[in-house]
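note to self: dont lose this again. the chain is below, predicted strucutre after it. 408 aa total, dont forget to put it in the shared folder this time
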Amino acid sequence: MFLILGILFFLAGCKMTIEEEPTKTIPTLTSVQITSITDTSALSGGFVVNDGDDAITLRGICWANKPNPTTSDNKMIDSLGMKEFVCKMTGLAGNTVYYVRAFATNSIGTSYGNELSFTTPAGLYKPVLSSTIATNITHNSVNLGASVQSDGGTRIISKGVCWSTKENPSLSDNVVEDKSSNASIIGVISGLESETTYYVRAYATNLKGVSYGEQMSFTTPPQPNTVKDKDGNIYHTITIGTQTWMMENLRVTSYRNGDPIPYVKDDRSWLKLSTGAQCTYDNSTDANFIANNGRFYNWYAAVDPRGIAPVGWHVPTKADWETFNEFVLLNNLSSTDVACFSAQTYGYRSGYGTADYVYYNKSIFWWSVTQDDNSFAWSNDGDKGSANFGLQSTYKKVGVSIRCVKDN
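---
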């Protein structure tokens, strides 16, 4: 009994202490100074002073172009770790005021650091160019001009003109660079094809990239004293009396509408033809040989309604050849005088029983479109070293040269 009473008195004299669990609060943090400011980005962050006695589950920065930004505005989340963190703001606009706050979240809620603000510099942009102007257009060259109206806020790295036969030329096409330091852009393009449409744009590059001026186009005129066929082959021309003639034999492989003129190599197939066909002497594939001598055509190709001569030209009639022969005879022209007509003695391809190639370097034969009868048509012929040409009736299946004359 006395023992129990003693214990009670002892306990009553002792002060009992029970440890209480700490109260959780939202975090406390400060925002970190803004650095690396450009027209499109900047760096900022925060420092977690106190986690509120609870684990941080989310932290980062938020920003807007109005005060007191929250996580419902633009934000960038940082990975958890050290108390201090840095995030990058992207997608900013140039010359704009932004407000920034760091934030941190635990199970109690989200808190924000002190508000900071900054202004992005004026944004850089690609150069602005004037329209391109073409001057001094010839059959194979052109002068082009434009100017850099704005450098985009940074130095011009390169400028010039680019061109192509396709629309919207770029730096991956043909380019002439203007290395001058002034704002003008001048380009001289040479080596162009005659009677061809080209598309041109000025260009300039800076740190933001390349920009192009408005596209323009131009078409080169014909080369003086020349004519171009459907394939793009170019022939020189000459005026003899009242007529203008090609100085080279025709070598086109398609009609005016683009349909191909069949190349027939096989002898038997050639002899059976009653439609247009073409070939080369001894079936040569040498480009220089063909350019110098032309191709052979049967009469059916010469009169095909799709047209074999260039636009504005025609295969001669018998009367055309008579006019030519009469001028040569009346003016007593020698073989030297008519050498400029380039009367190559190319021979012909037979159509009588065989389809042999004969008389090369001996004689020349040119078709007319005028027929003599159902099987024969008129051709104009000449021999090597002679300026005397004469008309003769030739079998329509024979393959001979064609020399075109300009329409009146």
